[in-house]
Amino acid sequence: MELDKAAICLAKLGNPVRLAMFRLLVKAGDEGLAVGDIQKELDMPHSTLSHHISHMITSGLLIQSREGRVLRCRLDYKLTENLLEYLMKDCCKGLHGS
């Protein structure tokens, strides 16, 4: 992962609502959640939730698909793993590496 992509992802997660949604979707796992279920869990108006979902989609962290009349949201776990690996890849190596 490149610095710019990591910065975009982290900027999108730097909002309390989006971070709460991210954590909720982590709990949901691969199945994800319907938008209506996210709305109930986070207790917010649909228009507000749509705004935050849009931000998460543009970061690439969120994937949305239609299943009949239901919009389902899932995390892009590959991107999430890459982001976490990027943040931790030099952990405990010191300033000059090893």
Structure report:
The protein is α+β, with helices and mostly antiparallel strands. Helix content is 59%, strand content 14%. It has helices at 3-13, 16-28, 35-42, 46-59, 77-88; strands at 33-34, 62-67, 70-75. Strands 1-3-2 form a three-stranded antiparallel sheet. The relative contact order is 0.17.
Task: Note the topology.
Layout: H1 3-13, H2 16-28, E1 33-34, H3 35-42, H4 46-59, E2 62-67, E3 70-75, H5 77-88
Antiparallel strand pairs: 1-3, 2-3
Mean pLDDT: 94
Q: What is the CA-CA span between the terminal residues?
A: 21 Å
**Total count of strands:** 3
CATH topology heading: Arc Repressor Mutant, subunit A
- How many helical stretches? 5
Please state the overall shape, judged from the principal axes of the Cα atoms. Answer: elongated
Question: H/E element string?
Answer: HHEHHEEH
Outline the low-pLDDT stretches.
none
CATH class: Mainly Alpha
**Percent of residues in helical segments?**
55-70%
Give the C-alpha Rg. Answer: 15 Å
Strand content: 5-15%
Domain count, please report it.
1
Structural class: alpha+beta
Which architecture does the CATH hierarchy give at level 2? Orthogonal Bundle
Order the strands across the largest sheet as they lie in space: 1-3-2
Q: Provide the CATH superfamily.
A: Winged helix-like DNA-binding domain superfamily/Winged helix DNA-binding domain
Q: What summary fits the major beta sheet?
A: 3 strands, antiparallel
Pfam family, one: HTH_20
Organism: Kiloniella antarctica
Protein name: ArsR/SmtB family transcription factor
Keywords: DNA-binding, Transcription, Transcription regulation
